[in-house]
């Protein structure tokens, strides 16, 4: 028997887990599945800005060799300018590293920091790669609760109560996946102050920072402190609708002098994989310096905003379903009355829906949410398809009683 590493025992990524495998099986049997399990804009008819795809085509011949392990200087200059304009102090291009999507950089950043048993504060619910990366690195993910009753904002006292002498870092996902919450500047300030007091590294996942609705106030976490070591993550997958290009970056700011060893570790991690995919690195400058027309998608007449509104309204009209209206990203994280529908296992619930209506959702527990009373919807399909899909959910729930 060939056994997997025990390091993987507690590592899960349900977005492509057993239920996704079931969906593929149904597809092989000839069914058409509406896949609302992953935030991948392209299959729903979204296109990256023309200049972004063009830059890859035009530069392909110059992209045949390895780049520097941190990535092309021109891309890093562009990222530096972009974050300096947001108000992050003292950024040098050496503080920026490019990756094959943010996913790879999350793994690098966490692996470079943790020793066996070190703790990281991770939100619940979370984007599950964060919990997975901590566990894979031998660390312990300690979940702080985001409070649905307060628009999914983290409770500061809960965060405080979970800090121990082993806590090394705090993860902030803002705008948030899966809840769609966008944190008020005051809350971010308090979280950063807490990190300062306990000498924690802040990992700020800001991959959705251009997908903001209703003119909500937004600030990048690193702007709150020149002292707290903050690693900010961003990329092209969501903001620029180009998830398949695998282009992301991370930026280290704050008191870098006290983090020399960690920064060397990040450098080692980046060099171990030589460099990220070079054609996609060319797309970064084109994206950041080019036409920002995709931002119209979140305006009142914009496609994403209309899809959010339709999906939200249809959803909350279903008896026993409630939801906080998202202010960012492209997900809804509704609550379902588990007593009314006799749900004890959210995975079974999502699987039953898939089998009956051929719609793929992800159960709340896939986002490290501890109760079986939530699920996540990706609202990327066009309004008409979303609307029909929500009708299917309503129909399914009419007769559904229990797992
Ligand atoms: N962070 C968050 C919060 C995400 O939702 C995702 C993807 O869904 C990622 C990171 C990873 O993005 P990518 O690897 O495509 O850059």
TrEMBL record:
<dbReference type="GO" id="GO:0008483">
    <property type="term" value="F:transaminase activity"/>
</dbReference>
<dbReference type="InterPro" id="IPR015422">
    <property type="entry name" value="PyrdxlP-dep_Trfase_small"/>
</dbReference>
<feature type="domain" description="Aminotransferase class I/classII large">
    <location>
        <begin position="33"/>
        <end position="381"/>
    </location>
</feature>
<dbReference type="GO" id="GO:0030170">
    <property type="term" value="F:pyridoxal phosphate binding"/>
</dbReference>
<keyword id="KW-0032">Aminotransferase</keyword>
<dbReference type="InterPro" id="IPR004839">
    <property type="entry name" value="Aminotransferase_I/II_large"/>
</dbReference>
<dbReference type="InterPro" id="IPR004838">
    <property type="entry name" value="NHTrfase_class1_PyrdxlP-BS"/>
</dbReference>
<protein>
    <recommendedName>
        <fullName>Aminotransferase</fullName>
        <ecNumber>2.6.1.-</ecNumber>
    </recommendedName>
</protein>
<keyword id="KW-0663">Pyridoxal phosphate</keyword>
<dbReference type="InterPro" id="IPR015421">
    <property type="entry name" value="PyrdxlP-dep_Trfase_major"/>
</dbReference>
<dbReference type="Pfam" id="PF00155">
    <property type="entry name" value="Aminotran_1_2"/>
</dbReference>
<dbReference type="InterPro" id="IPR015424">
    <property type="entry name" value="PyrdxlP-dep_Trfase"/>
</dbReference>
<keyword id="KW-0808">Transferase</keyword>
<dbReference type="InterPro" id="IPR051926">
    <property type="entry name" value="Ala_Aminotransferase"/>
</dbReference>
<comment type="similarity">
    <text>Belongs to the class-I pyridoxal-phosphate-dependent aminotransferase family.</text>
</comment>
